[in-house]
Design a protein that fits this description.
Length: 211
């Protein structure tokens, strides 16, 4: 099977880290696709045109991060799985919270990449405060021992803040959030993290805000 990704995509990075964490590298070929490109190699499989997309051997294309993780998890023994189930509501909530944060950051970043006269100050203000609110919550959660297990919530957290470090540098997320920054920094040594660091750039050129 093939996992389509783009090196800068924080969603696809979660899936790429999962492939490594689950020991599936010999079963899942990693394919780089261009985005928003009518000639993209992804489009014949996935009309949505977004990554991650996991294309099975019969060409069934599974899109969206969570279904992709579900499929990858199905390939390993239950005790190794990354996605929490309904029997672990706190871990499920932790994963959902970080995914929600990523959605907001993606909207914020997209807005900042527009020409200045096309940007919506209202959207930017909303997403700045949403990101700050969630990051403050995550700081408390991490300080209380959350996100310690290397599950989907942990991978999503690493991907969100990795994106902020490299591609959305306007968000000064580390400021006053030492527990979160500590967890993120410690995670960098994991092979799944170190091998999937996104390229720098393409983020906004706006001055940093604490957010
Ligand atoms: N809800 C999707 C979001 C995926 C997504 O937005 N991927 C972006 C890259 S970060 C993409 O492929 N964008 C291309 C496009 O919008 O055409 C998920 O959970 O995977």
């Amino acid at each position: 099977m093939r996992l389509f990704h783009s090196p800068g995509s924080p969603y696809a990075r979660i899936a790429r880290m999962a492939v490594i964490e689950l020991g599936l590298e010999n079963r899942v070929a990693i394919m780089e696709a261009t985005l928003r490109d009518p000639a993209s190699i992804l489009l014949p499989y996935n009309p949505v045109g977004r990554v991650p997309a996991l294309v099975l051997d019969d060409d069934t294309a599974i899109t969206e991060t969570t279904p992709v993780l579900l499929m990858l998890d199905s390939l390993v023994a239950p005790e190794r799985r990354l996605l929490p189930g309904p029997d672990a509501p706190r871990a499920l909530a932790a994963y959902g919270r970080v995914l929600g944060m990523l959605d907001g950051i993606a909207v914020w970043n997209r807005e900042l990449r527009r020409p200045e006269h096309e940007r919506s100050p209202g959207v930017i203000a909303l997403e700045t405060s949403r990101a700050a609110r969630i990051a403050d919550d995550l700081e408390q959660a991490v300080a209380a021992g959350g996100y310690a297990a290397q599950d989907a919530g942990f991978l999503a957290l690493v991907s969100v803040f990795g994106y902020c470090e490299r591609r959305h540098t306007t968000f000064a997320w580390r400021r006053d959030r030492p527990a979160l920054a500590g967890l993120f920094d410690a995670a960098q040594a994991r092979p799944s993290v170190a091998r999937t660091v996104p390229p720098a750039g393409m983020g906004s050129a706006a001055p940093p805000v604490r957010g």
